[in-house]
Amino acid sequence: MRGHGFLFANYVPGTSPVHRIPLWLKFLLVLACGTASFLIADWAVAAVALAVLCGVYLASGAGLRRLVRAVRPVLPVLAVLGLFQWWQLGGPAAARIVLNILVCVVAASILTATTPIQTLLDGVASLARPFRRLGADPERFALTIAIMLRSIPFIAGAYADVRDSARARGLERNPRALVLPVFITTVAFARQTGDALAARGLGDAEDRD
């Protein structure tokens, strides 16, 4: 199944300075980039920020090819969005919006490419721990994130496989030939995941009480 490079870069082992940045600082980087996407009003500033983040990503040793793979899935959407914004607001505004989105994508890719998935999930659980007094379960929350990170590439890969199969049979314009197999594959994946969780005693909270 393909699609494992979907949206964000996979972890790349290494000992670069970027790898050694504390996890909380990487979280702050992603948060700052997300906030900046609402505040940056000049496309040139957004372009400089994107260039800096791309330099940070390459400094981690992950490589240009992985960066392209992380960004490529959003490019068609950004192209459509950019054209629409150009028509509505003009070229500079369209460039600013597209570049700000790319800033967020690259920042998130730096986080995932330089942080082992287990360390990332432990960090998520730590962030959610103060909410335990409100009834939240940090471990369950981290598990949910882990399942999501595993499911998105799987579903993307399923769609790519089904699309190629439909194209080989001349059915690429048939919605049923695309949607139905992906739906069945996704449901089967969800059932297998649920069975695996249940086998490890990770069912509903009520079942554990």
Helix run count: 10
Number of strands: 0
- From the spread of the alpha carbons, the general shape counts as globular
Structural class: mainly alpha
Structure characterization notes:
With 209 residues, the chain is an all-alpha fold. The chain has two domains: 1-115, no CATH class; 117-209, no CATH class. Helices cover 75% and strands 0% of the residues. The chain contains ten helices and no strands. α2 (23-39) packs antiparallel against α6, α5 runs antiparallel to α6 and α8 (138-168) runs antiparallel to α9 (175-199). The longest helix is centred in the last third of the chain and has 31 residues, at 138-168. The chain is globular.
Key features?
mainly alpha, 209 residues, globular, 2 domains, disordered N terminus, 75% helix
Q: Concise description?
A:
By secondary structure, the chain is mainly alpha-helical.
Show the helix and strand layout.
Layout: H1 17-20, H2 23-39, H3 43-59, H4 64-71, H5 75-89, H6 91-113, H7 117-128, H8 138-168, H9 175-199, H10 205-208
Helix pairs in contact: 2-6, 3-6, 5-6, 7-8, 8-9
